């Protein structure tokens, strides 16, 4: 269990435990207005960091930091989570993640339909052939191996990924526009299970793009069923964000209900002026699905990859993205 959020959400209570420890820290941000991510009112205080972990928050007047920064008049917050990260290639090029980390992103969550694994030989060949300015060796096969590869090279942010529904489809069917055979589907489910065992967060889809939209609803339900025992969720770029928005929402809710997984919608919107008025109906659908949901956010995330040491405390809050989660009664 390696929940990166614990350094954020576990930090307030750790303050009390830290009071008895030496008041020497590596880094102290002083006098900032602290937004701790709990949703509560901000407060003016100091934040102390030891190694890469928030070690204390509050009035740390008696403490010293090897480096100190005065943040008077500035906001201090936990790192932001990029739930729809396409830093999968840029992190190979720049492990320091300068493009995102300078905007406050400390966790990159990848896997919108296509994930960096699992790969077969032809997918690897394609990934090599399609390289543009970013040149890299495809030195992994599974999703977990890719994330480990990143961490081994050295990266600044924490990383996690969904396993792509498109990727497991291409793995078994290539770019064919047909349903999988029972044997292919069984192998696809096996690939999802394998990724979940490596720590994937669930199944991601992007049903507006080929070959993703060749997948019918029942195929996606089966993939999500494979992720369900691991606590996986379903996250999707809907099949339509325009004229077919409402049926697309219904499809996502059906997948969540049938597979028994929480679900989240990527970049929820109503595209096209004729569809703008549908947003109220969309929210109503989500609200009513939540109203019958028995699913509760877990207090922890298992098997997240990170290049940081084990955090000081288990996570106390729910994952921020889990607020969108739902698991209707079956
Ligand atoms: Zn998208």
Task: Describe what this molecule looks like in 3D.
The chain has two domains: 6-76, Roll (Urease, subunit C, domain 1), CATH 2.30.40; 81-291, Metal-dependent hydrolases (TIM Barrel), CATH 3.20.20.140. It is built from eleven helices and twelve strands. By secondary structure, the protein is of the alpha/beta class. The relative contact order is 0.14. The strands form three sheets. Strands 1, 2, 3, 4 and 5 form a five-stranded mixed beta sheet that branches. Strands 9-10-11-12 form a four-stranded parallel beta sheet. Strands 6-7-8 form a three-stranded parallel beta sheet, with no helix packed on it. Residues 1-20 and 298-330 have low confidence and may be disordered. It is globular, with a radius of gyration of 21 Å. A hairpin with an 8-residue loop joins β1 and β2 (43-50). The protein is 32% helix and 19% strand. The chain binds zinc ion. Zinc ion is lined by residues 112, 206, 237, 266-267.
Layout of secondary structure:
Blueprint: H1 6-9, H2 11-18, E1 24-34, E2 43-50, E3 53-58, E4 64-70, E5 75-76, E6 80-82, H3 90-93, H4 98-101, E7 105-110, H5 121-129, H6 143-153, E8 158-161, E9 163-164, H7 165-173, H8 182-197, E10 202-206, H9 217-227, E11 233-237, H10 245-259, E12 263-265, H11 279-291
Parallel strand pairs: 1-4, 1-5, 6-7, 7-8, 9-10, 10-11, 11-12
Antiparallel strand pairs: 1-2, 2-3
Helix pairs in contact: 7-8, 8-9, 9-10, 10-11
